[in-house]
Predict the structure.
Amino acid sequence: MKVSDFLKRLLVGRKLASAQLGETLLPKRIALPVFASDALSSVAYAPDEILLTLSLAGMAAFALSWEIALAVAAVMLIVVMSYRQTVHAYPSGGGDYEVATVNLGPNAGLTVASALLVDYVLTVAVSVSSGVQNAKAMFPFLAGNEGWVAALLILVLMSMNLRGVRESGAFFAVPTYAFMVGVLGMTLWGLFRILALGEPLKAPTAGYDVVGTPAYEPFVGLAVVILVARAFSSGCAALTGVEAISNGVPAFREPKSHNAATTLGLLGGISVTMLAGIVALSNLTGLKLIEETGGSHFALNGQAIEVPHETAMGQLARTIFSDFPIGFYFVITATMIILFLAANTAFNGFPVLGSILARDGFLPRALYTRGDRLAFSNGILALAGAAIALVLVFNASVTALIQLYVVGVFVSFTVSQFGMMKHWTRHLKSEKDPKVRTRMQRSRLINAVGLTGTGVVLIIVLASKFIYGAYLAVLAMAFVFALMRSIRNHYTKVARETAVAPSDARMLPSRVRAVIVVMEVNKPTMRAVNFARATRASTIEAVTVSVDEDEVQRIVEQWNAQDTEVALKVIASPYREVTGPILNYVRGLRSDNPRDVVCVYIPEYIVGHWWEQLLHNQTGLILKTRLNFMQGVMVTSVPYQLASSKYALNRARRDSAAAWRQPGRGQVRMGEALDVERTE
Amino acid sequence: MKVSDFLKRLLVGRKLASAQLGETLLPKRIALPVFASDALSSVAYAPDEILLTLSLAGMAAFALSWEIALAVAAVMLIVVMSYRQTVHAYPSGGGDYEVATVNLGPNAGLTVASALLVDYVLTVAVSVSSGVQNAKAMFPFLAGNEGWVAALLILVLMSMNLRGVRESGAFFAVPTYAFMVGVLGMTLWGLFRILALGEPLKAPTAGYDVVGTPAYEPFVGLAVVILVARAFSSGCAALTGVEAISNGVPAFREPKSHNAATTLGLLGGISVTMLAGIVALSNLTGLKLIEETGGSHFALNGQAIEVPHETAMGQLARTIFSDFPIGFYFVITATMIILFLAANTAFNGFPVLGSILARDGFLPRALYTRGDRLAFSNGILALAGAAIALVLVFNASVTALIQLYVVGVFVSFTVSQFGMMKHWTRHLKSEKDPKVRTRMQRSRLINAVGLTGTGVVLIIVLASKFIYGAYLAVLAMAFVFALMRSIRNHYTKVARETAVAPSDARMLPSRVRAVIVVMEVNKPTMRAVNFARATRASTIEAVTVSVDEDEVQRIVEQWNAQDTEVALKVIASPYREVTGPILNYVRGLRSDNPRDVVCVYIPEYIVGHWWEQLLHNQTGLILKTRLNFMQGVMVTSVPYQLASSKYALNRARRDSAAAWRQPGRGQVRMGEALDVERTE
């Protein structure tokens, strides 16, 4: 095997038979982990961010963590309730983009789409960064290189996804359940040791004081409100990913909507329980965190002291499993894996959303079709590139990245809830059955509460985080929005320009004049001649350009030796130019016969390596590019497959086989679900 | 004007009417400066390099500079005599490459070509570097940034040449004669002041001692021989560029050969005089140079002392025109300009040689044709890139670069002289006229002396400089040789593979089956349909792929609304793939009708900006690429010019107009001269 083949194989993966395809609908017990990794994994960093933010006001503020966790749980309840309505109303798995577009129009949909695209990037960046931060509990040597480690992990994810890794339900189920078992087990065991056995468990940071910054130190007034709002906003990161189930309804077993709604409820319950458990244990074990860049610091007996940063998850696992190290390793490993899976979820969702946006003309059409590897590869590369840039710029600091996060999710939530209200209002207009009307009115009320709740949270998030980084997310969304808008405008303009008129079908050219470009008299040229003759054009002529007199004489002699029945014209070229004289000749043919079409036949060498391409076809390429600008001129490439072309053919076959793999994913999100049903 | 247009205009230059073309044959007084800038400019650095090298052996060695200058002058005499024979034997302006190829075969020609290509790069690097070193006499602040300044100057040269700057004879004549007047005037004035007026003129460095390195300090034995050989080798840089006239014979007025031979003699005489003058003045004024990296240094009263480096030209001009500063500025300015012109000469010669090599199949065919901007642009970019790399790596140190230089020139000299000997021997075989035979035998003798002389110098150059850098030049030549060899092999292989057989003209396909790819029903598609119908193929069918049921239904309805008389086939695509199903369909058509040809019509959007290209034609492009690998399938692009395409058309026209300018250059070298005659 050649080295280049080997490298390619390594990156893109081995050829897979299409028989390996196939998809089954998901039972609830598999659907939960498939859709939940994103939502559950945020438990790994949301509590930390609440505590970190509160630390700015010093020790006393930590007492508020309970209230904030409760507020987050309340929002979670509202969001879950609201999305249960969406699941019932859009059993086809509309997703927020569809809900917004259908009910509020394309600009609302595009707003949601921009928010989601930016948030996919942030999901990758935040999840991988949090994974690296948690990994430091097990591998302390990672400290100092977090950014590079995170970038490396994103590269691994990228190549996994470029290879088209097959994720079965089990691939998700095992680590997700392991994470749930680990965190809930840790919570129960911790509560048992503290409350039942009365053990005085203390977190590693329990012994320190936390000194806040002067801005918040007199813990009163507006400053408190602002700080609590910020802590709450960061805590709302726990809600990201909840919407995933509403996109995946078609992947559920029947009754789809019912099962999806139940799973959504389960997900909300588990998520809130885990969040509450971690906050409770943090309070009970005296766990403390500081925000170093913000200005709070640890102190011991009034002296500032340096303590290596460790996540809440890491500290709790260390404390609660102090006599059972396997438990510690289990929890940390499961946390790292689920964060990695959450990032992987974005790698699936991003290109799928891209495909839907391409369908609607907001992204290049080429991204629409599925089997084409192109679509997914480009999406994956774009996502990985943006996420790597973020983790490097912010050195994989979850605290810094979280300031940009959450904005997109709540934009999406809010617009979607508004769309749902419109949805019910519209249906209520035509619905007569009073029982159905009552149900719809109830749903509308729930979505109204959802809209109010998520809208208020969005305002809080924007207000409290704007200067800390949320403005970057808003700028990115605006940029993506404007870009997609202008792509759509371009397509609309082109569609108007190219719309068929009734007369188009009757504008038949009267004749076709075939012109064969002859550079040399060889098999490719003779093939072009034979093909041109087979088309029975009205006139067929071959043209060659006289660049060198000896050469042209040789060509003419060789031509005459062939029994082609096609005359060869020699065009003079005093300046040794090739394309200009041919273009002029074709231009002349056209203007002499304005109702005819000219078809230029160019023999093309099909080669196997990129460098061979540099040695052939260059003149033909320039000629073709220039001819394309002439009205009424077609260009026909007559390919001649050189022996070396088999390399390229094999390469193309391999790529294509890999691309075939793409639709067969277990991880289903957004419109992807459509195929799942169809391929049953 | 848009910014991008403005930048492009700035770089590539404004549109030029082809009426500005035209060429006249050169009288001797113009031909001399046109062809001499390269050869004469080396006077600016060759004496320096002799003195620098000798400085390694300390003060005493400088006395040898006279002998070395005489030896260089002797070699110059031999080379000029030899090339006068070439000028008479090849009045068509063969050049060393032609002489070697015709008389010694393609490998010898290729050796010369490799040597010349590498030497063009070095001419640019050395000339510009020397220009920067000399400029330091006027602009001392350049010291320390020589590499960057040189790189910048090469960029200026590059964009001048990409713009297709028009160099009239006057463009060369003024600075070349100014340089000759300056240097010869300075020599005469200096000799007059010293010898006639008896003024004790002392160079700025006259007062210092030079301490050599221990390796050469006891100035005896083999070490002396080696050092003198190195100094001589560096001095031979004065000979570079002498061969230029032999390439340009056709550009001379009648009698061409006679005038060219006279000019060659003049050039040799002037060059040797200038070299001798500078060495004489250096000796008389006590001028000293040191090679800092080599280990020699200045000393004052036995103490090592730091003296800023100044070229011999700079020191002499400063000393001799001590009471006439205008003279100083005149000499230095003329020196800088002629060095710049010498570098520019390479920018003309490199692509012309590339064109000749492309004609013979050693470089991509696309580089052959002239008018095509491509050929020249690529050559200019390659040359500039390589030269910039050299000046940056060697920080524009002439002393370092000169170690790589000269090798190529003498390879070319030696092989060419050997070719000339073969030339005379061959002609002597058939020549009967005793008078002509005598003349031929005399010419052969001169070329034999030339071969011996240049061969010995080549050996001296290689032996004395190999470890100091000449090995790099040899490696580069070997690489270029191998590259061109393998390109030629590729073309030969392809030519064998594609050679016509007598039966090729009779292998007519029985039928043409037209397949129109329909993505949407719009004007481009209808144009493709109409064109396909006009070709009167045996069968015509339109195919579309069912990616989305609603969409395909809309397409079918729109299709039926059009009165096309062509049936639309819908191909199922369960995995939302587009290219695969079409490829399979065409493959099926082919295998069902193996004697027929399939012609696939793809509507192509012609757009005006590169980013629009990303939004269109992607699927068509993939389809075309894959179809090209199928035997018996033609692909016809039916272009549809969108309104925006006029931008690209205007751009293409502008480029093309600029390209037309290229042949009209006053600077003629190598095969370029062919056109000069023809365009009279």
